[in-house]
Each structure stands twice: as C-alpha cells, then as structure tokens.
Amino acid sequence: MAALVGVLVSLPALAGLLPASDASVSAPDLRAAVLASDTVGFSGFAESAGGLDLPVTDQLTSVADLFSDRTRMRVWWRGPIDHRVDVISAGGETGVHRDLMGSWAWEYERATATRTLNSALALPRPPDLLPSTLGRRLLSEATVAEVSRIGALRVAGRDALGLRLTPTEPASSVGRVDIWVDADTGLPLKVEVFGKGAALPALETRFLDFDPSAPDPSTTAFVAPPAAAIRGAPVTDVALEAGRRIRPVPLPPELAGLPRRVLTGVPPGIGLFGRGVTLLAVVPLPSRLAAGLRDALVQSPDAVVDEAGVRVSAGPVALMLLDPPGHGPYVLTGTVTLDALADAAAQLPELGGTP
Amino acid sequence: MIAVELRKLFRRPRTWATIAVLNALPVLVAVLLVLTDLAPRPGEGPPFLSAVLRNGALYPLAALAIVLPLFLPIAVAVVAGDSIAGEASAGTLRYLLARPAGRTRLLVAKLIAVLAFVLVTVLIVAGVGYVLGTTLFDAQPVTGTSVSGTSLTPADLGGRTLMAIGYVAVSMLGVAAFALFFSTLTDSPLGATMGALAVLVASSLLFTLDAASPIAPYLPTRYWLSFVDFFRDPIHWRDITRGIALQGVYVGVLLAAAWANFTTKDITS
Amino acid sequence: MSGVIATRGLVKRYGRLSAVDGIDLDVRAGDVYGFLGANGSGKTTTVRMLLGLVLPTSGEIDLLGARMPRAGRRVLPRVGALIEGPAHYGHLSGRENLALLDASGPGARRRTRRRRIDEVLEQVGLGGVGRRPVKAYSLGMRQRLGLAGALLRRPELLVLDEPTNGLDPQGISEVRELLLDLHRTGTTVFLSSHLLAEVEQLCSRVGVLDRGRLVLQEQLATLTAPTGATVVHTPTPDRVRAALDGRVTSMDGERVVVRGEDPAEVNALLVGAGIPVTGLALQRPTLEEVVLAATGTSTDRVESR
C-alpha cells in the first residue's frame, strides 16, 4: 500500500526527470530564432511567479501584484496583433484580446469590457509576463557577447534549449536571465530572471501546457456580451498623463552610464535609459501618487535613506523618489543597482539630486 | 444490500435535516442579496455570486460555491463518518456481520449509499438554488455569459452546469473516502467525521502556504474550485482532469486501506 | 450430525493478554448448552469468534460442520444470534428493523419475509406493538425484538448471550418457555450466561469458562448426580450422630449429612431410634457448588501482593 502511494506520488516528479534532448544550436542562432517567433501560432497555459514586493500605492497595485503574485494565464496566439491572454483566478477571469487597433480587456467579476487603444508606453500587463513575450523582449537587445548556451530542459512536455543572458552593463541589477526555448518553434517556454548574486529567481514564468498549433480566430476574437458594461477611452496610464501635464525637465543624453533611448509618442518629460534588460526610467508623477509612494518608501524596512534621497530595491527592480521644488515629483525606477540610481540622481540636479 | 443501505440512509430524519441545514445558507445569502443588492467585490466572496445579480440562472452555481468550502464537506463527512462507526456505536454492526452481511459487501454498500447522498445533496442544493435564482433574481434563460465573456446558449449553460454539479460531487468523493476510512478505524462516528474534517482543514491551510507549494498539487482540496473552469470558454480542462484524477487516487487508496482494515478487524463493539 | 459447535485449541490474544486460552468446545445437536463464566472470563470473545466477528489468534472453529470464519456466508444464515444485548435503529419500527436485518444477508426469502416477521413478533410477544419506533421501546421490549431477530430464519442453532437481561420475572419465564419450545422442535441452543439459576433450569449440558480456559464441560445431569449421601433435617442433630455414629460426615445446624444412598434405609434407622425427621433427601451438588469448585476466585478481584 505504502509502495503504491509512493509510486503514484512520485510519478509526476519522475516524468519531469525525463531527459530533454539537446541540440547543437549556437546561442546567437537561438536568439535569432526567438526574435522571429512572434508570428508562430500556439496556445497554452502559463504560470508566472514573482518575488518582487514593490512598495507601491493603490493606483499601481495591479502592476505590483503582477510581479509579486502567482499569475495563471491561458493564451491563444495567432500573431502579435491577434491573440488573447486570460488571467484566471479561482472565481473569475480577466481576459485581454488583442486586435489590430488595440485591445479589449474583459473583467468577469465586474462584467465590464474595456477598450484600450495602442500606445507607445504602457504599464506592464499580464500578457507581458508570458514566457514567449517576456523572453522575446528580454532578448531583443542582447548582444552576441551577452548570450550563451545552457543545458536543455523539458518544459510543458517539450524539449527546450537553454539560453543564458548575462548583461554586461555595470549598472545592471540583473545577474542573469535564463530562457528555455522550444526547439521546434523558437518560442521561449520558460524564463527565469535572477538579481545580481541571487540564488533564487526574482521572476519565473513558464508554460505548463503548450500546444504548437495556431488557435481558431473565433477563440481570440472578442464580442462584448450583451450583459456587459462597455467602457471606451479608459483612464490613460497615470505616468503618461503626468508626463504631458508637467513642465518637462531637460534630461541628459546619458544617465548612470546608460544612453537615453528615443521613444516615439512619449512626452518629453519621460526619459528611458539603457539597453536590453538594463533599463532606467525617469517619470514624472502626479503629486497625490507621489505622496503615497513616499510614505510607502519611507516605511519600507529595506529602504536606503541618505543624502542622495530615499530609494529601495525589490529583487532586481530599484525605485527612487525625487521631489524637486517647482517641478513636481519624479520617480527613477528600473533594473539598475541602488548605486546606479544614486549616480543617476546626482546627474539630475534640477530634480533635487545632489551631485 | 445496497437497497438496504439506501433505505437506512434516506429513511433517517437526520439525513434530511443535514440537507435542509445545508440549503439554509444559500437561501439566507439569496435573501440578503435581494434585500441589499450588494454584490461582493471582485476577487471576494464565492465565485458566481456577483454574477447572480445580473443573471439569476447562475444561482445554482453560486449556491454550490457557497456550500462547497465548508458546509458540503461537513455534511458528507458526517454521513460517511457515520457509515461504519455509527453502526458500531449503535451495536447494529455486530448483528449485520453475524447476519452475515459480508464485510466487503457492507463496505461497498456503504460507499454507494454515501455516493447517493453526495449526489442527492448536490442536486438538491443546485435545485433549490435554481428555484431561488429564478424567483428572486432577474433570470435570463435566453443567454448566459461565460466567465471568459463569451455568450452561451441555454443548452450549453445547462450542460456545463450539469458537468459542474458532477465535478463537485466527484470532489466530495475524496472527503467521503477519508471519512469512510476513519469510520473503519474507530467506533466513534464523531471521531471519524472530525478526522476527515481535520484532513480538509489541514489541506486548506497548506494550500494557502507558500512553503507547502511542493505538495500543493496533492492536497485533496487543491482542485475543488475548478468547477468554475467549466464556465470558461473554451473549457479549461487542465485542473478539472487533474482534480478528477486526484480524487480517484485518494478514493482508490483510502478505500483499499478501509477494506484492508475492515475485513481483518475484530468487531468488539 | 453431532458437532454443532466444535472448537479445537481456540486462542485469542490481545497483545500479551490471552482473552481465550485454548478452549475445546463441544456442543452437540439437540443440546441446550449453558456457557457459564464470570464477567471477563472470555465468554463474549468466544461467542464473537463463533460468529466470525472476532478472528481467532489460533485454533479452529467448526460451526454446523463448516469451518469458520471462512464458511460464514454459508453457515451463519442458519444461525440466530443475540450478542451482548439487542441493538436496533431507534428511528425505525421493530418491524422495519427486522425487515432490514433480514434483507442484509443471504438465505432469506423476500416473499416470506412479511409472514416470518409477523410470526416471530407473535412468538416473542410483540405481536401488537404496531409502528412505534424502537427508541420508544422498553429495555424488555428491545430484548424481545432482539430475540425475534435471532429467530427470523428458523435457525438450526441459536447463540444467545444473556437473553433474559432486562426482562421482568414474567418475561424471563416466557423466554424460558419459548427456548424450551424451540428446543423441542429441534433447535440447538447455545446459551451464554453468568446466571447459574438460568442455566440450571434450562440447560442439558454445561461448559464453564474461567479466565479464558474451559475448566468444565459436562452433562448437567452428571454434574448434579447424587453423591451417595443422604441429607437429614432434624431438630435434634446430636441424637442423629449418636444413633448413626460413624456415618455422619458433616453437621450444620439442623442439617446432617449421612453416608448412604438409600434415604429409606436411613429414615428407618432414625425413626426406629425415635428421632424426629423433618426432611430427608438424597444429597446432590448444586451447580453453584460445582462451578465454585471448578473455578478459582472471581476475576473481578484484584489481590494485593
């Protein structure tokens, strides 16, 4: 009897131990395959788990939850502008249906369908945590020197080839990113992001079920149900709103050794610096949001408070609040070290940073 | 033998009292919902409850969701825990076995009686829920909305509801197997019931604990709420099939243990 | 068929404690077998082993010629049992209780069930009890209902554990008559009891259990056979001793035991000597004396060491 129970309990674990067959693909080739995979149709079920406890306030809890909770997603993917990702919870579901012009977000428990039009900069949403989407994004700007091959793994019953990204920027807080790529389709099936020196991933996302055949268009399409409340033109992302309203502070072409990126459609008040997985954003905030954020930061036990300002890091994500007189509050955040944040603040005397 | 056990179970006033108490909670919730018109906030409260205000035809599911975490397992544990231990404590077990009823036959008959109880109970809860939903709330029998936001035909909605009811019944089999197993260990029906409930409470607690995540897929309560997955579109089978398989393993192992114990046990009650 | 119940070296151990320690029961067809023993002597355990409820540690049991507990399904339908008091479903009527019990096992015809239930209820004196639930029964009524359950299939063997428990004297007498009636129609009765009087009045054969061992198993008539002495009751015991010097074995008040198997001869001698005799009888040991001689101290007793 005990033996039978033992066998039954260990079956799933044994199935996971089946050796994955590796292939001798070079790291740059594998990266190229990943970047070309966004038109591959597939469907599946993925789960992401984050250990990032960002000290943020009410308006940003959805983002914070995304990085600290376990998110379970069903995905049907026909292409970059035709896919559907349902985040499922025990008693409900939030689905994002992407189409050419934008996306529909369906919230079951509120029975609302929200239409969002495409924009250049948006807060992270659950679909961004899909292994395939996240893996592509993280690899998009990686250089040949940064990628290397690691051992293959069985993920969702598929052979997945290992690829490691080790950022070379000194300012980066990301130690490494491990990505396992489906040998047949080039789709990332599992992604692990490690902070510098961390033994456990700060963020892990992987497919549990994966079916490499394109879903039916009717599955990804969205028709608002008759009983639903429909909201168009939703509240624009808070940061974008503030970026337009506040008188922009001129930002330097380089911060903490990271070059400024050129973004179209983004107000000049918002600056994004860096490359690949090492990014630093300088974003103006509405005052009410900043006040709450400051309280949260000060109360955070991990916060570093010195003459440079208040800053905190959660895993590889660091955050710093600056409140220069006459400009309105700014937040500096990104996947950079706390020291890099201090350096960046020092380069922004107009924002109250002390050089 | 099976007919005898069914007669015993359903001629017993306590069986119907249990079912009545079980239905009291959904009735109370329905009345409060109608009076206050306050839906639970998203992410809180039992699944489907917020949707009931929009479509009363979903109340059978909300009623099941209300009783699923606690009331239903308690009722099942009470009945299954009583099955052998109750006969033992009443002294009738020795007469049944000297009759002779055959220990394996008795165990099988008890299990089937418990199954019948689970099914009847779940159907009554759903039935009462349907009556409540269609009389107290606005019912829209024409179309239903899936959790994923697609429209369902009444036939589709009905089919999925039946499948969900079946799934809830299967989920309760694990509870029944635990209680039946404990029932063969002790002569105290209360002890057997409490034993099964202790397992469920422990399981629910461990499920919320991150440290227990390696064993989470094996917890008996792990996939209970997956009946919601029948109402996603397309149906999300992953957890449903796992839930059924898990209950199957629990039921198989526990019944084997119950059988091994009961057929070699000295009846001294 | 002679051996209705036959056990060989029957042992039941609970851990290091031997509840039943190697007993060889021999109950023959037509016996009314009295199974005597103090509380805790292993009677109940033995009865439960006979019926397949408790599994023996070692030893063999033949019940109606078949090996127990293996043949239980074949043999037990021919056995009626009352084990340690009656037990029923309190919310159901007596009639329904009997019907459920009857339907719970093999060897009972469904078509005759109603009639058989009516008959046994009549037999145990519950014919007019109606639809009252059993929880409203008195202890005596429950005992009768338990007996009715045992009789339901006209068993060849009745195994009864304390069947008169809870009955009033009238009821005890009724049950005794009933058992004797059944015995006359060929039923073998195995009666487990701690009441010596009950066994003495009913039984033809006696087994005595003491601390798990069968210390005595014999026909009652043999056990209580005359001892070869005569008991004389007289107001003048001293004169008896004088007249029958040497034959008096014991004196206790007005009771004098005299050697001699013929009371008439003793009487003639005493009357001849002009001694008044108020009573005269052959000496027979009582069952109590036999049992006490065979067993030691009470099992309830805890001696200081």
Structure characterization notes:
The complex is a heterotrimer of chains A (355), B (269) and C (305). By secondary structure, chain A is α+β, with helices and mostly antiparallel strands. Helices cover 21% and strands 35% of the residues of chain A. Chain A has helices at residues 2-16, 27-35, 61-68, 131-139, 217-220, 238-245, 287-299, 338-346; strands spanning 42-50, 70-79, 82-88, 93-98, 102-107, 112-117, 147-155, 158-165, 174-182, 188-195, 203-211, 229-231, 254-255, 258-259, 271-275, 278-284, 304-306, 309-314, 317-322, 330-334. In chain A, the strands form three sheets. Chain A has a twelve-stranded mixed beta sheet. Chain A is globular. Chain A starts with a helix and ends in a 9-residue tail after the last helix. Chain B has one domain (2-263). Chain B has helices spanning 2-10, 13-36, 49-52, 59-67, 71-90, 92-98, 103-136, 154-185, 189-207, 237-263; strands spanning 144-145, 151-152. Chain B contains ten helices and two strands. Chain C has 305 residues and is of the alpha/beta class. Chain C has two domains: 3-221, Rossmann fold (3-Layer(aba) Sandwich), CATH 3.40.50.300; 229-283, Alpha-Beta Plaits. Helix content of chain C is 32%, strand content 28%. Chain C has helices spanning 43-50, 72-75, 94-103, 113-123, 139-151, 169-184, 196-202, 220-223, 237-243, 263-272, 287-294, and strands at 3-14, 17-23, 26-28, 32-37, 58-63, 66-68, 79-82, 157-161, 188-193, 205-210, 213-219, 229-233, 248-252, 255-259, 279-282. In chain C, the strands form three sheets. Chain C has a six-stranded mixed beta sheet, sandwiched between helices. In chain C, strands 1, 2, 3, 5 and 6 form a five-stranded antiparallel beta sheet that branches. Chain C has a four-stranded antiparallel beta sheet with strand order 13-14-12-15, covered by helices on one side. Chains in contact: A-B, B-C.
